[in-house]
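The protein record filed below.
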Amino acid sequence: MVPCGPISLAEQSLLSNIHPTAIVSPEAQLDSSVTVGPFSIIDGPVAIGANTRILSHVHISGKTTIGPDNEIHMGCVIGHLPQHKSFKNGETGLQIGRGNIIREYVTIHRAYQPGEQTVVGDENFLMGFSHIAHDCRVGNGIVLANGALLAGHAWVDDGANISGNVAVHQFVRIGSMAMIGGLARVSKDVPPYMMVEGNSEVRGINSVGLRRAGFSLEERNKVKQAYRTLYRTGLNVPQAMELLRDTAATSPAVERLVTFIDGSVRGICRHAATHSALASAETD
């Protein structure tokens, strides 16, 4: 890493990878291969890895570390202050991995508590106007579609797919390979592999995603049976978990599901049929 500032506009114009209208802080550390587009601002102790491309009108600030091979599109705000009324401007950070595509007007805020970081992993696809709030943990290979919103402290595990205009409540965790349908409101933890729509309602398993991820037919069938045990047998969660623990001994996928549910603080999403039945009973 080499510092890019302080240098004058005239000097910047001699560097083909930094546009002369860009502003780069003397504190920033940019690899010599980083490109910075027109009117972008890099403010503060930002560190950016090799071959990352920053397009026009991007604002990156704070104690933000961005790995190599990222692509950051127009209008993004990266590492700005958390949207929290009690924030006292403590030293907090943001860490972004490698190979992410961050599209137009995405916002990713740094952490709230001093010494903490918001974390975004590798090879994620963050579409336009999506938002990752303070203290979130976003894994690898995740799709966050247009307008999807992660509130503070949300966790998204590897391979999850969050569709357009989804709102995820603070402290919610979304499990590996889960699929969230457009416009959903997610206020409960989403177990791995599940498909969720509407008001935190499980509709089935993400069969297509599991197949594309290379899960064997045997493993997919075990996940399907685990889903039926959890959601379609009429058992409550503790009763279903007793049965799932036996299957977990012979299935890494089911073991991951069991571990996730054991660690859930907010409780997991209900099945759509259960949700509908409860709503019907309340109106009778």
